[in-house]
């Protein structure tokens, strides 16, 4: 709840400003490279990127060169895993596994148009901002192969995104990086990270 209260003023301000500016609305789809990271040294798990898709809506309110862009999209977070064998038992083998979490992600991005503006059919942009992530479903969690009782994913998480984008006519393209600001799994000290390549269609 504290995480949500932290973001609430930003969303209220964004919708207030967007009501006074040219607004663009449309659907978006993205191809993601997701990975969990673990700051624990000597961890028994190696993490690799998992490729997933996401889809949702974006809203953009422009103020000259600047713009605010709230979004809402369904995403799949997680990672591919390689659980290391017991070093004290050479006969054991590494175990491959996966973590797949369905989430609703709600970023609030502040952007700047380096090239182009409101009247231009094309532009080049940079942006950054916070993202709230709500875990809706645990589709797969092979961490229980390591320990059935020592994992628990947080239902609400906060991250930050930054990236670049460009618009051509009614199409909008983004490339962004996201990293978690809190541990998504405190027992394994994990944070969620992702690279996202997205395509949106401006309906307005």
Automatic annotation (TrEMBL):
UniProt signal peptide: 1-19
Keywords from the named record: Signal
Source domain of life: Bacteria
InterPro entries: Beta-barrel_OMP_2
Domain Outer membrane protein beta-barrel: 19-184
Identification of the protein by name: Porin family protein
Species in which this protein is naturally found: Rhodocytophaga aerolata
Higher taxonomy: Bacteria, Pseudomonadati, Bacteroidota, Cytophagia, Cytophagales
């Amino acid at each position: 709840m504290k995480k949500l209260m932290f973001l609430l003023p930003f969303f209220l301000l964004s919708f207030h400003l967007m009501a006074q500016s040219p607004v663009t609305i449309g659907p978006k789809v993205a191809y993601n490279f997701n990975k969990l990271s673990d700051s624990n040294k000597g961890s028994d798990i190696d993490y690799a990127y998992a490729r997933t898709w996401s889809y949702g809506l974006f809203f953009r309110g422009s103020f000259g060169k600047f713009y605010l862009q709230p979004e809402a999209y369904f995403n799949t977070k997680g990672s591919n895993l390689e659980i290391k064998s017991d070093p004290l038992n050479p006969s054991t083998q590494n175990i491959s596994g996966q973590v797949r979490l369905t989430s609703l992600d709600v970023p609030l991005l502040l952007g700047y148009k380096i090239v182009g503006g409101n009247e231009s059919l094309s532009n080049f942009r940079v942006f950054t901002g916070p993202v709230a992530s709500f875990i809706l479903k645990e589709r797969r969690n092979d961490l229980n192969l390591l320990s059935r009782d020592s994992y628990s994913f947080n239902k609400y998480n906060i991250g930050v995104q930054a990236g670049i984008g460009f618009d051509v006519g009614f199409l909008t393209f983004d490339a962004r990086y996201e990293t978690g600001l809190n541990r998504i799994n405190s027992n394994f000290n994990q944070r969620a990270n992702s690279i996202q390549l997205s395509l949106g269609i401006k309906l307005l």
